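Quick log. Single chain, no ligands specified.
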Amino acid sequence: MVIEAEGYEVDKKVTLGLIKKAVGQVEGIHGIKRSLFKEGIKVKKSEEGLAISLELLISEGGFVPQIVEEVQKKVKEEIEKTLGTKVAKVDIKIRGIKSSS
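-> predicted structure:
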């Protein structure tokens, strides 16, 4: 999927990189699965904006609602600030909780 705007296009790899960067800024994320770029991130474009779905692993002891809210906020801010493209929603699936030991 290429994001098209007036006078330029943004490749899917750029969008995925921005999402990964935003997720990496959130405390409580254990890590991102290697397959994240292929299976763990989905981006769809609609008239309302981008619909982003993420599958994440969180760290044990993290407060899930707070982590989810922070990821949604960071992803939305990063995409909208960098690409100038509206994000309609960011859906999150927690795929596991990992211990830090």
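The CA atoms of residues 73 and 90 lie 9 Å apart.
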